[in-house]
Every structure is written in C-alpha cells, then in structure tokens.
Design brief:
Rossmann fold; 45% helix; six-stranded parallel beta sheet; binds beta-D-fucofuranose; 2 domains; eight-stranded mixed beta sheet
C-alpha cells in the first residue's frame, strides 16, 4: 500500500513537471536567425554569441540557418521564418541590397526584424541594426598606416588589398575608408580583389598578387583575419617576408584570438578590431520590444586598434584621438574572443 502511494506521488510529480515544461516551452520567445555562413573565425564567434544569448535557459527558442554565403538561400531562410511565424527575425545580410520586398513581407506578417553586423542599405523596414562602423575601421587602418610610414621612414606606399565578400557592407566600408586616406596621401593601390573573407580566398588572391606584382608592393591589407592567414601562406611560399621585421606591412580586420596571437608573434603589423559579440545588444532590443518600448534604430559596437610595436600610440579619426594598443601577453589574455 505504502509503495503504491509512493509510486502514485512520483507519477503525479512527473505529470506536474511535464505540464510545467510544456508551459515553459510555450513561453519561449522564438527567434529566427539568418546567419551569413561559416566563412571565418569572426563568424564562428558571432554564431556562438547568438547561441549563448538565445538559449532555452534564457527563455528563447533559436531557429538558426547558416546561409552558406548565398544571398538567395538567405532570402529563403527569412521567408521560412515568416512561414513558421517566429516572434522575431535576426538577419546578418550577406549583401547590403535586395532586401525591400522580403522586409515588406516580414512587416506584413507583423514580425519585427533586427539587423545584425552588416547593414541593409536599400530598405529601412527593420526595427534596429546592431553592428560596427566599417567605414571607421577602414579609415583607422589608413590613418594608422600613414602615421606608421612616417615613423618608419617608409616614403612610398604600394598597397595590395584583399577585399571581403563583394557587395557586403563590411567590404564596402573598409574599402571606402582605406581608399579615402590613400587618396588624400597619394598612395598607390596596385590591386584590390575579392578574397571572399575566407583563408582559401585570401591565399588564392595573394598567390596571384605575388606573381603579378613581384617586388612591387610593400603593404598588404587583408579585410579579415582569415584572408590574412591565407596571404601569409602565399607570401611564405613566394619567399616574401612580412610583419614588423619583414619587407611587407601586413594588416587585417577582425582581431579574433588566432590572429592576435600572430600579431603578438610578429607575423602581422597591425589589426583593426571588429567586435562579433553583438547578440547581447540584440537581446536588449528584443526585451525592449517585449516591454513595449522603442529601441534605438542604430546601435554601434565599440572596437579598438592594435599593433605589434608601440611606434604609433594613437590616431585621429573624425577629430577624435583614439589609442592604438600594443599587443602583449596581458592584452591577449584579456581578449573575450
Ligand atoms: O569581418 C569577416 C566575416 O561581416 C564584419 O564577415 C563581418 C565580416 C568579418 O566573414 O570575417
């Protein structure tokens, strides 16, 4: 008899628990995230940031689609989220145009869209954008190079640029920002080609640069970390030395741990950070919407500039003096990604 009671009690408890968890699941906020792909260390950090923030534990059901760098797949993913009637849609737009129709569809379905990282430039039918100022990153790179060349007595700049995915706002901003400073200073940009933000792409572009511009270049600008790794492999194979002790000034954008280790080791000369940990700010936007508040339309991530040497300690951007941090063991140990 006693035993039966215990079993009964246990069954009742189990029933209550499962009722509770059904109820809890019903309360989860469903978020569809159309991510660019998995092309780089930056992207991996961005995805992890979203998975950490939009976890079940935190009250979310994250529907994640890796769009494999294909704009058509990304539009399909967003339409899939509309069909699923998710509560919110996050888009990291592979390219910055071609969005108005699908954003109108989201609007008609009453699903708020939050844009993360790259920008959408042909529609404003989204609630908020959270990301980085890519133009500023490009200008920072240019201003640093100007000060570095002056300090090192480098009289002529003959640069090769390995661009990120063409048509992405990250590529557009970094290219425009750097070109602006290059023009002001009469630098020569020998070539500027698409490395698609991947290591293989960076290597391929650099291999062809090493053949076409042998002995003619003294600066390589890789628009992300992974392209910089690819460029290093290509230069190594071609017998070109790079970094603060080499013949070629090598810089990258992003600043994930692996490249920061290379910066400390003296393989690169400088790195211009782009912070991938935007998901907590996206969550704030969602929580504001849940509370019936109106979030900011644009939210900028903060980022810093890093160099192997302490030759240039600050640069001026838009009239503001910004520090350039020398990479050390300590700085590296404190990096969040
Ligand atoms: O720099 C690159 C990634 O959109 C800022 O995309 C992002 C860029 C980042 O693939 O590594």
């Amino acid at each position: 008899m006693k035993k039966r009671l215990v079993v009964l009690a246990a069954m009742t408890a189990a029933l209550c628990m499962s009722a509770l968890s059904v109820q809890a699941e019903g309360d989860l906020i469903t978020v569809g995230f159309a991510q660019v792909g998995h092309e780089s260390d930056w992207r991996t950090a961005s995805t992890k940031s979203a998975e950490d923030v939009f976890s079940e534990e935190n009250g979310y059901d994250l529907q994640f689609v890796d769009c494999d760098n294909d704009p058509a797949t990304q539009l399909e993913a967003v339409r899939g989220f509309i069909e699923q009637d998710v509560d919110y849609i996050i888009i990291d737009p592979i390219v910055s145009t071609g969005w108005d129709t699908v954003l109108t569809e989201c609007e008609d379905a009453g699903i708020p869209v939050i844009v993360i990282d790259r920008t959408i430039d042909d529609s404003d039918k989204y609630v908020s954008w959270v990301g980085s100022n890519f133009l500023t990153e490009g200008i920072a790179c240019g201003q640093w190079l100007k000060a570095y060349a002056e300090a090192k007595g480098i009289e002529e700049i003959n640069a090769l640029v390995i661009e990120g995915t063409k048509g992405s706002s990250a590529q557009i901003g970094r290219t425009d920002g750097f070109n602006q400073v290059a023009e002001e200073n009469g630098w020569t940009i020998l070539d500027s080609q698409d490395g698609d933000f991947t290591q293989a792409g960076g290597q391929e572009v650099m291999e062809s640069y090493c053949k076409s511009y042998e002995g003619q270049f003294n600066v390589v600008i890789a628009q992300n970390d992974n392209e910089a790794f690819g460029a290093m492999d290509a230069m190594k194979a071609a017998g070109v030395s790079y970094g603060p002790n080499g013949d070629v000034v090598l810089v990258s954008f992003d600043g994930n741990k692996p490249i920061m280790e290379s910066l400390l080791a003296g393989d690169l000369t400088a790195v211009f950070e782009c912070n991938p940990l935007a998901a907590p700010d996206v969550e704030k936007v969602i929580q504001q919407l849940e509370a019936g508040e109106e979030p900011e339309k644009e939210i900028y991530m903060t980022e810093s500039w890093f160099a192997n040497e302490d030759v240039v300690t600050s640069i001026e951007i838009d009239g503001e003096e910004q520090p350039v941090t020398q990479m050390t063991e300590d700085v590296l140990a404190n990096r969040a990604y």
